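Morning. Coffee machine broken again, so started the prediction first thing and wrote up yesterday's gels while waiting. Chain of 227 residues, entered below exactly as on the submission form.
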Amino acid sequence: LWLLATLSALDRVAMSVALVPMAEEFAFTDSIKGSISSLFSVGYGLCILPVGLLVASASPRIVMTFGLALWSIATIATPLSTTIANSMVPLLAARACVGAAESVLLPTMQRFLAAWTRPDEKSTAFAIIQSGFQTGTIAAYLLSPIVVDYFGSWREIFYLYGAVGVLFIVPWLAFAKDKPAQQIAVPTSPVMVADSDFKWESSLREAPWIGFLQSPGCWGMLLAHAA
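Came back before lunch.
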């Protein structure tokens, strides 16, 4: 999970470095650069709630696999999207797809932690995993300029980081398990239902939405994350 967090940060931050040479090559205005940077968050924000509901009733291992595959492929497609016609739409769509796919990370990580850690270990484990995001961010800022200088193009940043993500799918599928018991008895179905009694409709209906809106803690976390 720490490696997945690191990889996601690499793909997320790559645009921050690549956007400078991209803007020079394509003569992007400030508004276009802002749109490119913001579409990641748009995709992420629109998908994290549906993904959270999905992970509650489906295998977090499988959901994470699809998320990893999608954001890696979308990362590889980012430079390719600039060659399609004379439109910004493909590039913006690629960045939105990266954000949407990376929205699987936190919900699936919570499911894995619930299954694999004791309550008194969960906060420490989550902090370690969260450090992967910072590690990936630092690595992206350090490595991306080196990649650009070595290959002479910003495009290789996306090809390289996306390829690493695609390759990581193999060990992830080989070693990741939804629950510790699955190391001994793996289900025959490729998609294991995590909670067969879970109902989306009742979960949405019974969730304390008013309580969320009235909670200072929820607003504090929302504002802290937005900042």
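The radius of gyration is 19 Å. Going to sketch it on the whiteboard this afternoon.
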